[in-house]
Automatic annotation (TrEMBL):
It comes from the Eukaryota. GO terms for biological process: blood coagulation, common pathway; fibrinolysis; platelet aggregation; positive regulation of heterotypic cell-cell adhesion. InterPro entries: FIB_ANG-like (IPR037579), Fibrinogen-like_C (IPR036056), Fibrinogen_a/b/g_C_1 (IPR014716), Fibrinogen_a/b/g_C_dom (IPR002181), Fibrinogen_CS (IPR020837). Gene3D superfamilies: Gamma Fibrinogen, chain A, domain 1 (3.90.215.10). The keyword Zinc does not apply. It is found in: Secreted. One of its GO terms (cellular component) is fibrinogen complex. CDD domains: FReD. This is Si:ch211-157b11.8. It comes from Electrophorus electricus (Electric eel). Residues 10-218 form the Fibrinogen C-terminal domain. Pfam families: Fibrinogen_C.
């Protein structure tokens, strides 16, 4: 999925907060748009999916060929990395800014080697700030629906709801014997360690599993 660059000029000195606000302006074209989640911070570019499931989705993670290494540092995950037109992580600081004022809907789209697509949608998605270690869905229930399975809230031991974010250089998981991020090669909201890891190592056909993944917030 490739995006053209589209500029929406601010009418009040501020850009739209997210892709959903751009959709409300009547714009229904996939593209890279300028958004401003935090009015106190500079605007930034983000990929917007305006076609899937009604549109208005801010794409904060995309993987489809494994060319981008997701085993990055805490700083890289905070600031974001990759290319918006290809594989990328938008950044934990942006995720916090997007969801700070109101919870968002999280939609995960997965595709396997046989081109079978599955979805997992959570009606409440919120990420805390860096001081709180970007805890996901803090104090919020996970309202799941879809056909991909609820791996983010799989069991008492493997429950990603309310967990702090970890990277190989910042271990915040609940696994006392080691570092889940270091072991699984990715930054993630690890428990001890995981039931899902969509930032993990990308396999090119030797193992069955996911070949394409999008994380969308609206």
């Amino acid at each position: 999925m490739f995006y053209s660059t589209v500029v929406v000029a601010p009418s009040s000195g501020l850009y739209p907060q997210d892709c959903y606000e751009i959709l409300q302006l009547g714009i229904k074209e996939n593209g890279i748009y300028t958004i401003q989640p935090d009015p106190q911070q500079p605007a930034l570019e983000a990929a917007c999916d305006m076609l899937s499931m009604g549109g208005g989705w801010t794409v904060f993670q995309r993987r489809f060929d494994g060319q981008l290494d997701f085993n990055q540092t805490w700083r890289e995950y905070r600031e974001g990395f990759g290319s918006l037109q290809r594989e990328h992580w938008l950044g934990n600081a942006v995720l916090h800014a997007l969801t700070a004022n109101r919870p968002h809907i999280l939609c995960i789209t997965l595709q396997d080697w046989h081109q079978q697509t599955r979805h997992a949608t959570y009606n409440t998605f919120k990420v805390a700030g860096e001081i709180q270690r970007y805890i996901s869905l803090k104090h919020l229930p996970m309202y799941y629906h879809g056909d991909a399975g609820n791996a983010l809230s799989y069991s008492k031991r493997y429950n990603h709801n309310g967990r702090a974010f970890s990277t190989y250089d910042r271990d915040h998981d609940r696994y006392a014997a080691g570092n889940c991020a270091q072991y699984y090669g990715a930054g993630w909201w690890f428990d001890s360690c995981l039931a899902a890891n969509l930032n993990g190592r990308y396999y090119h056909g030797r193992y069955s599993g996911i070949t394409d993944a999008d994380w969308l917030a609206s």
